[in-house]
Each structure stands twice: as structure tokens, then as C-alpha cells.
Amino acid sequence: MGSLYLEPPVALLQDLKVTIHDSSLIFPSKETEKRSMFLSNIDQVLNFDVETVHFFPCHKDFPPPVVAQRLKNAIADILVPYDFFAGRVKINDKTGRLEIDCNAAGVGFVVASSEYTLDEVGDLVYPNPAFGQLVQKNKDFLKPGDQPICIVQFTSFKCGGSVIGFSMSHTAFDGPSVKAFFDNLAALAANKPLVVTPCNDRQLLAARSPPRVTFPHPEFLKLDIIPGKRPGPSGGAHSTARITSFNVVTAHIWRCKALCSLSNDRERASTILYAVDLRSRLNPPLPKSYAGNAVVMAYATAKCKELEEGTFSSVVEMVTEGARRISDEYARSVIDWGELYKGIPYGEVLVSSWWRLGFEEVEYPWGKPRYSCPVVYHKKDIVLLFPDIHNKNEGGTNDGVIVLVALPHKEMDKFQTLFHKFLI
């Protein structure tokens, strides 16, 4: 099941002593079409930034200045097939919807350095808040009001190692599409062709006309209801789903998380949310190269009493059923729900899995990352899954998983007890 971190390592650095040396904009290396890009209803609710850091050991043939220049050139080249990435998210005054102004305004690029070596940073797996210094947080990047969809920060360490930090709007990518983006970026940095040509047509996930909400959607919290529009009756076909290691891990986490509450209300209902990739579930399937957000939230709900007294297999089945529910018709119903209502995913806990995205497998000219992860800001209602590089670095497989849970001390003590109790 991996590792459960309760306390920070003793030698955890609180300040990486990062100095910014240069800030600039990178523009597409070729002229691109000026246009407005439609954003789906899935994209619309993901208007926030995601920060990731990718650590690289020293490479004798690629000192930091060379890596920085290669990276800068590759970004300029990738902004041609991914032209929207150099644009700006804006609100269409007529429709009230978010869209991307593909105006070639550029991607932010920051060059920085740390006074430490990569080894001195310590355990890269532990979610050190200091990693926030490795991504650029300046919303108004070079001038007030100009907010790039992405800002890249390249930080070198005294040992010759480096880290690439991305701060990018979630409207641009989901997990699978950003992995394809990184594969393409690495290929261009090596002067190779794209690994995959991105599909930028987000009309593929546009709502139907008229919208038809054919399922109840308790996984969303309505923020605003448009008068005169109501959901239709539930219905539609289910797709098949197999029990996966993700289902098993998620079921275990859900059980422990629901039961560690100090309220001890066994009649309380607990809902868990987790993302499901739509690409292969739609009819016809989306292109695997779809460069946008093609995930919806699956959910499972049960009373704490059921989670405590039921068998583990029954909890796993509830999680599996949540994924099984995501058919073509269900996904279209979710998209149409977003056309009629304003709302956000709603549950007691959200599992965000970075476990099998494969960021650490991207082969750059200067090597694969020693570790890749999001910059973590501890939130009680979000549980993160990461690959276990400790196991891999010791000669094992990459199948281990690290579970990151943030809770108050008393709830964490109870969670830890339940975590090991239910493993037996």
C-alpha cells in the first residue's frame, strides 16, 4: 500500500534560498492563427492553476545553462501545435463563458538558482511546502493584467541538478493530456518530431442542443439555477468496469477517512469523488491525443456504519460501481448539467491520483526526472496518490503508491490506526 507520512523528515529545508535572475515571455517559433478557442463545460469548472515540479540530477553533458536554453527553444516550438497554450483565458462578454484567446501572447519563463545541492533538499517525496519557491506565483507576470496560461520556472542547484516548475491553468490540460504535452516537449528539446499530434477540438465535448440531463448528479453542488430549466428523468446504459488497484487503494482510503471523524456519527453519509478519464468511454471514443480536460468525477456514497461493518470487498465494489456508472450517456449528461447549472464537484473527500500519470518516465535529453509531483498545499478534503520512488530506486517495481492525507492530529492518529487495522 506504500508509505504513510505523519511527520516531516528531521532535515526538511524550510527555505530553498531561491534567487530569480531573469523573467521573460516565450512566443511561438512560427506564426499561429489568431482565434477564440471554445472551452467545454468540463474545462469551465477547472479555472485554477496547477503547480508541478520536476527534479533532474546533474548531467555532465547538459549543465544548467544548456538545459535552460534547450527548454526555452522547445517551449517556443511547442507553442505552434499547442497554440492555445500561448493565449489567455478570458470571459466572453456575450455568453458569459470562459474561452481562450489564442493571441500568441506567450508563456512566462523564469530563470532562478538555489544555494543548495539537490541532495541537501532531502526527501523529494515528502510534500515540502518550500517547493512552492520552485514555481512562479506572480499572476500579473510582466505587466498588470497579463496572466499567461503557463509560467515555467527553471531553477538550478549548486550540484548541477535542476528543477522545472510549471504553473499552468487547469483549463488547458488534464492529467493524460499534460503527460502527452511533456512527452512532446521532451521530444522537441531533443530535436525530434512530436510523439503525438494534439487534438485541440474541444467542441467534441460541447453540450447537446438542447441539453438533456438524464441522470441525477449528486456529485455536484449547484451554485446557481437557471429558472425554467430542470433535469429530466434518470436513465441510460451502464458501461463495464473492472476492479483495479486504484479502486482497491481508494476504497481503503475512503473507509479510513470516513471513520476517522471525531464525531462518531455512524449514520452520517460519506461521499468520495475521483476522476475518470472519458477518452475510451465515449461513443465514438475521443482521440487519445485530445488536448483538454476529458475527465468527470465518479462518486460513491455510503453511511459510516456501512463502511465500518461491511466487508472490504463491498466497499471496493461501491468504488468500482462509481467508475462503471460513467458511460457515454452519463458523461453527456454531466456536460449538459454544466450547460444548465453553475456548480462544483461536491463530496467529503476527493482522491487526486498522480500515481500512474508517468511524469517521471518522460525522457528529456538531460535524462528522466528523479521525481515529479504537484506542489502540495495541505487540505483536509483532498487525498493525493503518488508513485513510490523509494521502492523503484531500491530496484523494485514502480507499482508502489504513497498516500498523502492531511488531517488534524487527533483525526490523523485515528486514521493511522484504521489504516493499519483494515490492512490486516
From TrEMBL:
Q: Recall the GO molecular function terms of this protein's record.
A: acyltransferase activity, transferring groups other than amino-acyl groups
Q: Which family does it belong to?
A: Belongs to the plant acyltransferase family.
Pfam families listed in its UniProt record: Transferase
Is rRNA processing one of the keywords?
no
Record keywords: Transferase included? yes
Which superkingdom is the protein from?
Answer: Eukaryota
The protein's matches in InterPro entries, at most eight in alphabetical order, are given as: CAT-like_dom_sf, Plant_Fungal_Acyltransferase
Q: What is this protein called?
A: Transferase
Keywords for this protein: Transferase
UniProt xrefs under Gene3D superfamilies:
Chloramphenicol acetyltransferase-like domain
